[in-house]
Design a protein that fits this description.
The protein is mainly alpha-helical. 69% of the residues lie in helices and 0% in strands. The mean pLDDT is 88.
Length: 384
């Protein structure tokens, strides 16, 4: 028995009584993960998304239920261009053009008439410039544009945007905004970023970029408004609480805690919370925060160093030694810091053994370094 085609599975699922639930949770795209779209799981314009949407289209199941996780307006407005590009490239073998065409004939559905596409930008054909970049993916295009911005190759960016505006207008406006900022035209960058966000209100990267532009332009009230709108649309927008912490100092702790609950693996956030506690003299709370973070990411070097320092300030030398031992195998500075603590708070033999085995010191060098560390510690204590 012949296995069912992918397009037959799509038709079956989206014709089922649970089609609304399936459409809401359909996830075929990797791009949205990188872009951080709010309330949207699929970018709609990569080959995976386009192929899936045309499978629905040809099966007669493209409707409000089946496309809840896509930008339906973007697809409808670019139907001919997207179909033409899918035919021209047909790189993704999960969506054979033959299957889509046969399915459309079966359901008596007319597919768009292919049009002549503009030539791809020259830089898309330059393998050395692309360096493992696939222009179909937004995240890869962002990498490419960033490298072009660094090289001040603005004409190449213009050529890319001129090509991509037919397929991905939201991203094109975002890229134009980056170019304007790089050329020192902040007001024009803000105008472009605003248009990009209006076109794609779910694009959190665009929102965050516009917030940074407002702050750079000393428009703090506009930045606050954007943060509030973003959090109203998505209360799980962790970075939104980070922005709120910076914009509203009186609510900083509450905002940082909310962000930490949403993004427990964010080391930058854990560090920000620990610094907040340290600045307020809440050393026990700072220690607890760093301990929790290191449970998630044991090899976080900055966190381990900070925790060891706080332990040492609290005269908890054994825990300080343990904190540094956790990263000493992967960090040379941690080994030196651990050697210092061993010299000051462990028996002479243990410190010298560590110096010779882990730091490669000769026995005489280890002895000399231990004496220097102890002398400097005594001198510092006397001055204090």
């Amino acid at each position: 028995m012949e296995a069912p085609r992918r397009i037959d599975k799509v038709e079956y699922i989206m014709s089922h009584k649970f089609a609304a639930l399936a459409g809401k949770n359909l996830f075929v795209c990797n791009s949205c993960q990188h872009e951080g779209f709010t309330g949207l799981m699929n970018c709609t314009i990569c080959d995976k998304c386009v192929g899936t949407l045309f499978e629905m289209y040809a099966s007669g199941v493209l409707n409000d239920n089946s496309t809840q996780s896509f930008n339906r307006k973007l697809f409808d407005n670019n139907l001919q261009n997207l179909w033409s590009e899918l035919i021209a490239e047909n790189r993704h073998h999960a969506h054979p053009i033959k299957d889509i065409s046969e399915q459309a004939d079966k359901h008596n559905i007319s597919l768009p008439e292919p049009c002549v596409l503009p030539p791809e930008p020259k830089i898309y054909q330059d393998a050395s410039a692309l360096d493992n970049i696939c222009p179909d993916w937004r995240a890869d295009r962002n990498r490419l544009v960033n490298s072009l911005l660094a090289a001040k190759r603005f004409a190449d960016i213009d050529e890319i945007c001129s090509y991509e505006k037919k397929f991905d207008p939201g991203w094109t406006m975002f890229a134009f905004a980056k170019k304007e900022e790089a050329q020192g035209r902040i007001d024009k960058a803000i105008a472009q970023a605003k248009m990009a966000l209006e076109h794609e209100p779910y694009a959190t990267k665009t929102r965050e970029y516009l917030i940074s532009l407002f702050l750079k332009n000393n428009q703090e009230s506009e930045a606050q408004k954007l943060v509030a709108e973003g959090l109203a649309a998505d209360r799980f927008w962790g970075r939104g609480y980070l922005h709120l912490a910076e914009l509203r100092p009186e609510a900083k702790l509450e905002s940082l805690k909310k962000a930490a609950n949403i993004m427990p693996h964010s080391l930058a956030l854990r560090g920000a919370l620990a610094n907040y506690y340290i600045e307020g003299g809440q050393i026990a709370e700072a220690i607890a925060e760093l301990e929790n973070a290191l449970e998630y990411v044991p090899d976080w070097k900055e966190g381990a160093f900070g925790l060891a320092l706080l332990y040492e300030q609290n005269a908890d030398f054994e825990r300080a030694i343990k904190a540094l031992a956790g990263i000493a195998e992967i960090d040379a500075q941690a080994r030196l810091a651990l050697f210092r603590l061993l010299c000051l708070h462990r028996p002479k033999g243990e410190a010298l053994a560590y110096g010779t085995k882990k730091l490669g010191y000769a026995q005489s060098t280890a002895v000399r370094e231990r004496s220097r560390i102890i002398t400097e510690a005594h001198e510092a204590k006397a001055k204090a």
